[in-house]
Amino acid sequence: MTTQVSASTVVDVPINEVYDQWTQFEDFPRFMSAVKRVEQIDDVRTHWDVEVGGVQRSFYATITQQEPDRLIRWESEGDKMHNGEVSFMATGEGTKISLAMEWMPEGFVESTGAMLNLDKRAAEKDLERFREFMQERGKATGAWRGRIEDT
């Protein structure tokens, strides 16, 4: 059975800076607790090393849709199912980020964590750390403004 998680936050930074930072996948370990390493292979492929509940996993993901300042959608490659999207919306207070993910928990630890909504709390905390990171910096560490149509 798949697990679905959604979380959102508002960052007091302009949408172009928030979006630009989100495209810097190799910076994700700075604010995502489970992410140990991300390698950007090309414009659409990334390789992820994560650790959840002491269990280490690696997988490749493909960006299937990317629209600057609006949306990034991805899905994993291979047997392990993981997909999601992050959307960006300008608000009077800055930028609203909405994250939605779906994956297939494996084993007792991941299944128990999903049942207890620990994954949702982790996603919320990760977005809080991202918000703090962006509000402290005020600008992105880099940017990729390319567009990827549904692949």
Describe the structure.
With 151 residues, the protein is α+β, with helices and mostly antiparallel strands. Helix content is 25%, strand content 41%. Strands 1-7-6-5-4-3-2 form a seven-stranded antiparallel β-sheet. Strand 5 and strand 6 form a beta hairpin. The radius of gyration is 15 Å and the shape is globular. The model has no long low-confidence stretch (mean pLDDT 91).
Set down the secondary structure blueprint.
Elements: E1 3-11, H1 15-22, E2 35-40, E3 45-52, E4 55-67, E5 71-76, E6 82-91, E7 94-103, H2 107-115, H3 118-137
Antiparallel strand pairs: 1-7, 2-3, 3-4, 4-5, 5-6, 6-7
In a few lines, what is going on in this structure?
With 151 residues, the chain is of the alpha+beta class.
Distance between the termini: 25 Å
Rg, rounded, reads 15 Å
Q: In percent, how much strand structure appears in the residues?
A: 35-45%
Mean pLDDT: 91
Characterize the main sheet.
7 strands, antiparallel
Which residues sit in consecutive blocks of at least 5 with pLDDT less than 50? Answer: none
The helix-strand sequence is EHEEEEEEHH
Helix content: 10-25%
Properties at a glance:
151 residues, alpha+beta, 7-stranded antiparallel β-sheet, 3 helices, globular
